[in-house]
TrEMBL record:
It holds the Pfam family LysC. This is Rz1 lytic protein from bacteriophage origin. InterPro entries: LysC-like.
Length: 40
C-alpha cells in the first residue's frame, strides 16, 4: 500500500477488492452446485 494513501491508491485497492470478492462469490456458487449434485 502506498504511503501516503491517496485517492488514486484507494480506487485501485477498491478495484482489486471488488475483483477478489467477485471471484469468491463465483467460487462459493460453484461449491454450492457441487454440494447439490453430491446430495442426489
Amino acid at each position: 500500500m502506498a504511503i501516503p494513501f491517496t485517492w488514486q491508491a484507494s480506487l485501485e485497492l477498491n478495484a482489486q477488492l471488488y475483483t477478489a470478492l467477485g471471484q469468491c462469490n463465483l467460487d462459493k456458487a460453484a461449491i454450492r452446485k457441487i454440494e447439490e449434485v453430491r446430495k442426489k
